Amino acid sequence: MPFPWLSASILFPIGSALLIPFVPDKGDGKQVRWFALGVALVTFLITVGGYLNGYDPSVEGLQLAQHIDWLPQLGLAWSVGADGLSMPLILLTSFITALAALAAWPVSFKPKLFYFLLLAMDGGQIAVFAVQDMLLFFLAWELELIPVYLLLAIWGGKKRQYAATKFILYTAGSSLFILLAGLAMAFYGDSISFEYTALMAKDFSAQFQLLCYAGLLIAFGVKLPIVPLHTWLPDAHGEATAPVHMLLAGILLKMGGYALLRFNVQLLPAAHAQFAPLLVVLGVVNIIYAALTSFAQRNLKRKIAYSSISHMGFVLIGIGSFSALGTSGAMLQMISHGLIGASLFFLVGATYDRTHTLQLDEMGGVGQKMRKMFALWTVCSLASLALPGMSGFVSELMVFVGFVTSEVYTLSFRVVMAVLAAVGVILTPIYLLSMLREIFFGKENAELASHSNLVDAEPREIYVISCLLVPIIGIGLYPRIMTDSYRASIEALVRRETSAMALVIPTPASGLIRQASVQAPSLTG
User: Fold this and answer.
1) HSE of 267 in the Cβ direction (CA atoms, 13 Å)?
2) Average pLDDT over residues 348-361
3) pLDDT at residue 189 above 50?
4) How many CB atoms lie within 10 A of CB 82?
5) Residues with Cβ within 8 Å of residue 451, at least 6 apart in sequence
6) Contact 2, 54 (CB under 8 A)
7) Which terminus of the chain faces fewer neighbouring Cβ atoms within 10 Å, N or C?
8) Are 311 and 344 in contact (CB under 8 A)?
9) What is the pLDDT of residues 66-88, one digit of tens each?
């Protein structure tokens, strides 16, 4: 019997978290943080071991699968597996969590509870990507909410209770749509099953698909987040600590994009053919609105938070592109933004620890005293504004080219959407570079310079950023190191999308779609 890599990567951090109360510690967290870091590293090694020993990137179907009947009378089972849609995000989750455990090194307030929640999140978020059962997915989705709420409510800033409550109201409330849609799909037809493969085989009616798609779009749109369901994110980021920032930006937002691909596109392809133009429009709105809002922010955390919302707009455009290149770009954008977002928010936390302010007006002239920190900020900001040679450039270019060359949409729609999205791309370097100028080379704040402990970047901080920059630059220089891991699954997904185009019924939105039959282009062609 093969080793259960995915089950181990889910259960090991959760089981280890339950041992934290028994870890001998004097209350300062010096022992428990080593334990948590070790568990997070072992979890990362388990996911890497699964990728190297049981995952074949050229296979489009499910791999590393494990199925154990739970309540067969109700069709419930422990079912896990990975394909190209989930394996890269499983690796990203364990990688970012390990770095977040290292970023949490200074945590001294209730350290056991903090690391308990961190490890519980690790297993819960891997489960979101690995489970192959709709009910298990819902349970993993809900399990992940509780640690985030507590991490915000206990270790957040001055308005932490407000931010945590808003987060739980938005995300838990929208999760009801997942449960309702999952139950509806499971009980549809003669057989009862929550497994993805069984749901894919069911012949859902067009109207049923539209209803389920709309509900799931709201649920996943909150997590992505899609404007106007985004307002919880700037508040959450505004109050979170650096390691929680990394988990929010690096992993949490990707759950929404993954779920859109897994459920809305894969399980409900006929409805996706109807909603795809709306996704593209919403993606453009995300890019422009969030970029303009970020431009106006004077709070550093909120500026980067709105930047994250803007970048996730490319994911929506790629998902709605009906092209293998565009959809692959959306997948790469999720991975790329997970790495870049985690690096920027880690630097925000490190900068706040030194300046004790988040207001750009109160920062200034610290570049001479923090030269290494300025260098780290500059490289990560250049990655965020999609500098050629870094992962953000490749992913955004793939989305643009994939959408513009898609034969599904009318030429006028493609041109208008591409031009509008380009406006956001132009705004991004403006607000990021002006932010750098204000922090490091603006008018010197004499009080800040005289009273703050403006030490330069420490070895731990340089190490964390270096670990994130290696894949950012590696993917930028050789994208196939990542795209080959999911190419087969993406091409199969797009073939399923395009074959459902024949089921599109005339609607106002479908007027943007060419009604002729279309062949799904491959990534290699």
Assistant:
1) 30
2) 86
3) yes
4) 27
5) none
6) yes
7) N
8) no
9) 988 877 776 678 999 999 999 99
Other CB atoms closer than 10 Å to residue 52's CB: what's the count?
9
State the sign of the Cα–Cα–Cα–Cα dihedral 224, 229, 230, 233: negative
* Residue 194: strand, helix, or coil: coil
Rounded alpha-carbon distances, angstroms, from residue 410 to 79, 259, 407, 514, 516: 41, 27, 8, 6, 11
Place of tokens 């898609």: 406
263 in Cβ contact with 223 (< 8 Å): no
- Most distant pair of Cα atoms in the chain: their distance: 74
Q: Which two tokens stand for residue 501?
A: 């185009």
What is the predicted pLDDT for the residue at 75?
A: 67
Quick one: DSSP state of residue 75?
Answer: T
Residue whose pair of structure tokens reads 């859109």 in the numeric block: 260
Q: How many CA atoms lie less than 13 Å away from 379 in the CB half-sphere? A: 17
As a whole number of angstroms, the distance between CA 184 and CA 215 comes to 11
d(CA 494, CA 306): 30
Handedness of CA 301, 302, 308, 310 (dihedral sign): negative
Which tokens in the block code for residue 107? 């945590």
Q: Check pLDDT > 50 for residue 349.
A: yes
Distance CA 211, CA 205 (A): 10
**pTM as predicted:** 0.93
Is the pLDDT confidence value at 518 over 50? no
Task: Return mean pLDDT, the chain.
Answer: 89
Q: What is the pLDDT of residues 241-295, one digit of tens each?
A: 999 999 999 999 999 999 999 999 999 999 999 999 999 999 999 999 999 999 8
Q: Is the pLDDT of residue 522 over 50?
A: no
Q: Render the burial of 234-273: b for 16+ CB within 10 Å, e for the rest.
A: bbbbbbbbbbbbbbbbbbbbbbbbbbbbbbbbbbbbbbbb
Helix pair 391-404, 300-319: axis angle to 10 deg: 40
515 falls in which pLDDT band (50, 70, 90)? very low
Q: Which two tokens stand for residue 116?
A: 């308990």
Element (H, E) at 494: helix 487-499
List, in sequence order, every residue forming a beta bridge with 513; answer none if it has no partner: 409
- Distance of alpha carbon 224 from alpha carbon 237, whole angstroms: 14
- What six digits make up the tokens of 421? 């999205």
Closest CA to 321 of 224, 404, 213, 225: 404
Cα–Cα distance measured from residue 232 to residue 435, given in angstroms and rounded to the nearest whole number: 23
3-state DSSP of 11-62: HHHHHHHCCHHHCCCCCCCCCHHHHHHHHHHHHHHHHHHHHHHHCCCCCCCC
- State both tokens at 357: 């302010």
